[in-house]
Amino acid sequence: MDEGWGGDVVTVGLVELIGEGLPGARPVAEIVAGGLGSAGRELALTEIAARRSVLLQDDQVQECMTAVGRVADIMMRTTVRLACEAAARGLPHMQGFALVDWLGLRCPGMTVGALRDVARVAAASTDPVYAPLVEAVVGRGMSLARAGLVHRGLTRVRGALAPEKFAEAVELLAGAGVEPTFEDRDVHKVVEALLRTCLPEKDHDDRAKAKAQLRDVHESSLADGTVRRIIMTFGDDADYESVMAVLRSPLAAPSSAQEQAATGVPESRTPGQRRYDALMTVLRRGVAGTKGQPSTPKATLVVTMDLQTLRRDLGDARAADLPGCGSTLADGASISAATVRRLACEADIIPVVLGGPSEIVDQGRRRRLVTPGQRIRLAARDGGCTIPGCTVPATWCDAHHVVPWAQGGRSDLSNYALLCPRHHTWVHERRLGATVTALGVIWRLR
Q1: What is the number of alpha carbons within 13 Å of residue 432 lying toward its C-beta?
Q2: Considering Cα of 275, then 279, then 280, then 282, what sign does the dihedral take?
Q3: Residue 393 gets which letter from DSSP?
Q4: What is the rounded average pLDDT for all residues in the chain?
Q5: 134: buried, middle or exposed (CB in 10 Å: 19+, 13-18, 0-12)?
Q6: Is 355 helix (H, G, I), strand (E, B) or coil?
Q7: What average pLDDT does this structure show over 83-109?
Q8: How far apart are CA 404 and CA 37, in angstroms?
Q9: DSSP states of 169-222 as a string?
């Protein structure tokens, strides 16, 4: 495949040649319309052939993916240039459409976000002061999404700057947007710094107060209750970044190859499911923890079942709403004995164990939670989740009773093992045993 196609080798002198009226030169309309028509036909054929991509060699797959990227870049730049021309001529308004709607009719395959960014850049192209930003997109490789971010920031500060200072700001942000070492979050920081510098302090305060008023958490479950959803609207950037830090943390990372080899369980969770697990881990630890270390119970449950059921697999438990409970099943819903045994590792369970009909034989023992001192020693010994290959740190791990408390297990270091919430559930489901030594925990995984 020609390494130079679509690149500088081909384009050098081509712009000057097209449209100069030189003998043999093809008209611009013929090149653009004809080229797009030919490209459309060739790409349609390519898509059909790609259905049998299994026949490609490894190097051919990589080469073709690189070519796809080049084609996408060319098409993006062509789209922006044509949209700019349409905006300059006022074609959308002449036909009674807003620019973004006019583009959507002609490019139905584009996402709404991409359409808005194209429309934003095209509209900016009608104002000469934005020329550096438009050129950064069509000639210097700035992405549409980044251009949209920069343009939104510039429109907010324009009224606060003198024309010459605003032109400098456009140059600055256009340059930052094409800087290869900058990520989107870096450009966002530059835009925010410009806003802080240019906008009056009162505007910042008013904006912060207005955003704070938007903060909201509400339920959006399906009417039949089969799916439960909660929607959160952030009123503060710091709050948003705190949540995103959790969603980008090792808690949300896929299981490593070593972990999958050790457990024999492939990573089947979607990215969204991993982020959900990470967020719930933090929330549960927040409910359970005080003074930075989880030492208080996650819940206080009154469990009613017979002793043999607690030690076996079946049975129901009902949680009563007690003062100070971290979590209760206020609606009286039943949970399985397996769930009770898992919760018993860190929740305060008050067993009302029945040896027969209505005969209470034991009220249970409460003093068996891991202590702060024990947790420190466990962190030093285990380092984190004890399942081989798992990278969840000790801070986010549960202290698991290797010999279950309900079966006489003791709350000693020699009977504790740190497990992340996901592997805690996994160990309980498979009833895995382990050998605990002064140096760590060895799980019997097979």
Answers
A1: 23
A2: positive
A3: B
A4: 75
A5: buried
A6: strand
A7: 90
A8: 70
A9: HHHHHHHHHT-TT--HHHHHHHHHHHHHHHS-HHHHHHHHHHHHHT-EEEE---
Give the span between the Cα atoms of 42 and 259, in whole angstroms.
Answer: 45
pLDDT tens-digit map of 240-251: 878 888 888 888
Residue with tokens 């010994």: 381
Contact between 305 and 401 (Cβ < 8 Å): no
Burial 145-169 (b: 16+ CB within 10 A, else e): ebbbbbbebbebbbeebeeeebbeb
The pLDDT tens digits of the residues spanning 16-69 come to 445 555 455 677 878 888 888 888 888 888 889 889 888 889 999 999 999 998
For the segment 348-405, what is each residue's pLDDT rounded down to a tens digit?
Answer: 554 444 444 443 332 333 456 777 777 777 887 888 899 888 888 887 888 898 888 7
Query: How many Cβ atoms are within 10 Å of 4's Cβ, its own excluded?
Result: 9
- Could you tell me which of 288, 445, 433, 308 has the C-alpha nearest to residue 375? 288
SS3 391: coil
Residue 152's nearest CA partner among 206, 191, 198 is 191
